[in-house]
Write a structure and sequence with these properties.
Helices cover 40% and strands 15% of the residues. With 466 residues, the chain is of the alpha/beta class. A hairpin with a 2-residue loop joins strand 14 and strand 15. The protein is globular, with a radius of gyration of 22 Å.
Length: 466
């Protein structure tokens, strides 16, 4: 689907009365959810007594309550209530080979048995995995392993400031770069600015600002206003992993504008690497960043997986331990580059390449996206879908596209967000699970037959809409 069509369809959803579930159908969905997932509900009630909110990560939130897993395999998630869900959540993107992919599991177990999970000195997989990553990201002349995408984004800003000597960093509205103090700014819906930055002193944002998505002229103006900009950071596909799609050629324009102003371009590849393209967003869209950030996807969902890569002279500013006289971007982390994580990263990248997983998962994603559009048209719904290779977006309420400054649109945020929650519950009612009822990640275990069955279930959901 062309960019102009995407934007036109999003605008149509935003400007039109929102579609809703028939009241009796929504009641049935919630009642079946409660009945079919009673053990998950009991687990949630127990967890709430010891864990704030009852869950640890946004991916786990489901309406009316989160589910508890028992077993995961291939493209399936079995819950404690013995309900088997076809999984399009895929841990938020990193699972592209499928859950518990046996060849990868065997390699990780072998390393744990021989070297342990973490021991405090180096291991051969530390540099072998970095070489494997660099093979597909030539812009990463040097690589440093870290423990999370949030940590990698945080270090990227520090490196940019040390290297350039400048302080200002510009992000784009709605783009997500983890939860560090400086980057909990203008998240999810462009224009929200500090709305989600409770507990963070206002002065933290003295040198952080955001630019509206896809607005190259506004970015140009900001360079003139800020003058001494250290870096611009972006999600390659656009806000929320492409929920607000990036305009063709925009990333390249940002690169050129950065270099005209002696600023660094930081490409956040946490979702894009190996899922969008073996070379991530930078290869897919055709631009060359100065720094690249990687997160959970680089280790195929194994814990403590993240990295930052970039031009050699830039990465050489990273240091740890007791300092000398030169300026440096301090970085630490006892668990970083542990044998378990680096083994997972090395073999995951190797297996993704050998199985042609990026292309295979992308093909079934296209089948899913095109099929959903046919279903929506059949039911006369304004909803639509598109995919960036193996990442599929479903726009129903288009909450991420609301204009926070519009007095008519801003009050709709709660209602449109709640509809996405209802849609998520309806998917689970059909034994499907996705990201917030709006994003579907595919892997190589999703066959054409599974996609066709999924489309039948989505057709069933659409029949429940008023």
């Amino acid at each position: 689907m062309e960019y102009e069509d995407q934007i036109r369809k999003i605008d149509n959803i935003v400007s039109s009365p929102m579609k809703e579930f028939k009241p009796e159908e929504l009641r049935g969905i919630v009642e079946r959810y409660e009945k079919n997932h009673s053990k998950s509900k009991a687990a949630f009630e127990r967890a709430k007594k010891i864990i704030p909110g009852g869950v640890e990560h946004n991916l786990a939130f489901n309406f009316p309550f989160p589910l508890e897993s028992k077993k995961l395999y291939d493209c399936y998630m079995e819950t404690v209530d013995d309900v088997v869900l076809t999984d399009y959540l895929c841990c938020g993107g990193p699972i592209i080979l499928g859950h518990n992919y046996k060849p990868l599991t065997e390699k990780v177990v072998e390393t744990i048995q021989e070297a342990g999970s973490c021991h405090g000195i180096t291991h051969e997989m530390e540099y072998k995995s970095a070489e494997q990553l660099q093979k597909h990201f030539p812009s990463c002349e040097k690589i440093r392993w870290l423990q999370s995408g949030t940590e990698a984004d945080m270090l990227a800003l520090r490196i940019a400031r040390v290297y350039t000597g400048n302080k200002h960093v510009i992000k784009f509205g709605g783009h997500y770069h983890g939860w560090s103090d400086q980057l909990v700014y203008d998240l999810h819906i462009p224009g929200t600015k500090r709305m989600e930055s409770h507990g963070i002193p206002k002065n933290i944002y003295k040198y952080i600002d955001s630019c509206p998505p896809n607005d190259i002229e506004r970015l140009r103006e900001m360079f003139k206003e800020k003058r001494r900009v250290a870096a611009v950071i972006l999600e390659p596909m656009g806000a929320e992993s492409g929920a607000i799609p990036v305009k063709p050629g925009f990333n390249k324009q940002v690169e050129e504008l950065c270099h005209e102003n002696d600023a660094l371009l930081i490409s956040d590849e946490v979702v894009c690497a190996f899922r969008l393209d073996m070379g991530g967003g930078q290869a897919y869209f055709g631009y060359e960043p100065d720094l690249s950030v990687f997160g959970k996807i680089v280790g195929h969902g194994y814990p403590s997986a993240a990295a930052i890569g970039g031009k050699e002279e830039i990465l050489n500013t990273v240091a740890a331990g007791v300092g000398g006289g030169s300026k440096r971007a301090y970085c630490g982390g006892t668990l970083a580059a542990n044998p378990l994580t680096c083994t997972a990263a090395y073999w995951a990248i190797k297996f993704v390449e050998e199985t042609n997983a990026t292309e295979r998962a992308g093909k079934v994603a296209t089948r899913l996206s095109n099929g959903m559009n046919e279903v929506f048209e059949k039911h006369g719904l304004p909803w639509f879908s598109y995919n960036y290779n193996a990442t599929v977006h479903l726009h129903s309420s288009a909450v991420f596209a609301l204009d926070i400054t519009d007095p008519e649109q801003a009050p709709q945020i709660k209602e449109r967000k709640e509809f996405m929650e209802h849609l998520g519950a309806a998917l689970i009612d059909q034994e499907l699970i996705s990201v917030a009822g709006s994003r579907f990640y595919t892997n190589i275990q999703h066959t054409d037959e599974i996609i066709d069955k999924t489309l039948e279930k989505i057709d069933n959901i659409c029949s429940k809409i008023e």
